Amino acid sequence: MGHRESVRFDLCSKWYIIILMLMHLIILAAASIHEYQDDSFIRRSNSFFFHGGSEGLYASKLDSDDGKSASEDKPLIGKSFIRFESIIFRRTKESAEKKNEMQQRTGLVEAIVLEVRDREKIGGSYLNSEAICCTPELSKDGSCKVGEVIIQQNPDNPDGPKRMQTFFEGKNEEANMDIQTIEINSPGMYYLYFMFCDPELVGTLISGRTVWRNPDGYLPGKMSPLMTFFGLMSLAYLVLGLFWFLRFLQYWKDIIQLHYHISAVIGLGMCEMALWYFEYANFNSTGTRPMGITIWAVTFSAVKKTVSRLLLLVVSMGYGVVRPTLGGITSKVLLLGVTYFVASEALELVEHLGNINDFSGKARLFLVLPVALLDACFILWIFSSLSKTLEKLQIRRSMAKLELYRRFTNSLAVSVLLSVAWIGYELYFNATDPLSELWRRAWVIPAFWTLLAYLLLVVICVLWAPSHNPTGYAHSEETGDDFDEEGISLTGSGIKVAGGDLATKLERKERKASSAAEHHVFGLGEDLEEDKRE
Question: Residues 397, 513: contact at Cβ < 8 Å?
């Protein structure tokens, strides 16, 4: 059996409004209550804009009795809307001084709400112009008014882009927007922009807040299915934990150290899913993410990801099966784990606590790249260790353990192939849907990774379940003496053996097992008998 079994995997506008939307699809919003604190406007074409938010919203529910919207005594129940609260525009003192005090309207700021499919209705594209604001030339045919944003209205579609205007009066430096609510009657990805066309308003700031709500709560449309998903995953981990706990109690005399590590991962998974469910439920009812619960959920998520990867790594090294301890490589394993935890925690905090405009693409890439590289290190080390473990078990003819590790390797291979395929789908999904028009499907992307991690844990629980006869996978002094503590490293490709020649030791082992192997086939029952005789 001189042949090596190894597994290797190489993971190895023209329309200005589209550009505005793309700039703000970097990070998920941290709340359905968007607050503005003296934010400034940015120039685009002949306009100035501020992005007030974007979310997937479902249509308002109708009352089943009379077909009308939710009753007036409960205005929030079943309604989907965007509400403007305490919006204040402040222009510069110099700009205000240039105006006539007796003039009623001396400056205009517009709030525009549009569904992503109506993006081409903003600006002068339908007038063969790249202008966003109406000019004297474009106003000659009466299609727009000078000083206003060009919006192509469709009389047959009342749910098209909506415009709300706020005027400065006389020499006032502030203009207060009326409190008003825009009800959403058709589902879609909605964008909010505050815009003005007058160059004399340069330096104007905006403060206040807008409230975005779906019919069933404040969770954005992209996230609302995840609350149900995390609730179901909490039950799934509870069932797995109950199964594992009963087996643990039933065979408590035969428990090995590896079983405690598996128990820790199951416990962390239960806590993680429960925390995410309660975090989403709180978010859905209040409109803001609860800082305390979110930090705990993020931390448990990072800890569970780290411990899960370490569990896969030490199992691949043969810990508890072909080696009693990790020995000298323990420090390397712990260093990789701690580094991964820090990188993962930082990325999770940014994604779940950062506001939509807080981080640029480069800043997020700076946090994503270390996690991706560390994941690659884990994968390479896991499969390198598995290859060497399988080779050792083949040479020893320890068929029960070999069959166990073959099944484990096959499960990991399938998971890696699924991961690569899903990464390809995710890249395709993001490339073909840059403006989140398919927002109702977006929850499936993160849910897949959570489900895959759970299924891998189930596989480990089945393969290494406590039993009356743990000798099929427990470490034996007779078969583990030729595994050096430094035998498997992150970058090394050879197997070191201290104090002697590898060939001599392997030959002695082969002679010891050859007579028994001649009378057995590759079956789990016979292999367990062979291990008992050894």
Answer: yes
Beta bridge partners of 212: 82
Residue identified by tokens 């379940």 is 465
Q: Are 206 and 111 in contact (CB under 8 A)?
A: no
Residues 77-107: tens digit of each pLDDT: 789 999 999 999 999 999 999 888 888 899 9
Identity (one letter) of the amino acid at 417? L
pLDDT of residue 76: 64
Q: 532 CB contacts (<8 Å, ≥6 apart)? A: 471
Residue 133 DSSP SS3: strand
Hey, what's the torsion of the CAs at 113, 116, 117, 122, to 10 degrees?
50
What's the CA gap between 317 and 258, in Å, rounded?
12
Q: What is the mean pLDDT of residues 4-19?
A: 36
d(CA 179, CA 319): 64
Q: Report helix, strand or coil for 88.
A: strand
Name the residue among 342, 460, 388 with its Cα closest to residue 4: 388
Q: Give every CB contact of residue 458 below 8 A, 6+ residues apart in sequence.
A: 240
Question: Does residue 63 contact residue 78 with C-beta atoms inside 8 Å?
Answer: yes
3-state SS track over 373-408: HHHHHHHHHHHHHHHHHHHHHHHHCCHHHHHHHHHH
Cα distance between residue 313 and residue 381, in whole Å: 7
Per-residue confidence (pLDDT) for residue 73, from 0 to 100: 42
Q: Which two tokens stand for residue 172?
A: 């006032």
pTM of the predicted model as reported, rounded to 2 decimal places:
0.75
Give the pairing of strands 188-196 and 162-168: unpaired
Three-state secondary-structure class, residue 404: helix
Give mean pLDDT, residues 123-132. 75
Rounded Cα–Cα distance for residues 204 and 523 (Å): 78
Sign of CA dihedral 436, 438, 444, 445: negative
**Residue at 331: amino acid letter:** S
pLDDT of residue 522: 33
Q: How far is CA 361 from the centre of its chain?
A: 16
Half-sphere exposure of 60 (CA within 13 A, CB side): 21
Rounded-to-5 percentages of helix, strand, coil across the chain:
50, 15, 35
> Checking DSSP bridges between strand 47-57 and strand 188-196, what pairing results, if any?
antiparallel
The kind and range of the H/E element at 69 are: none
Interval 52-85: pLDDT, tens: 999 999 999 875 444 444 444 455 678 999 999 9
**pLDDT band per the 50, 70, 90 thresholds, residue 462:** very high
Dihedral pair phi/psi, residue 3, rounded to 5°: -85, 145
DSSP state of 2: -
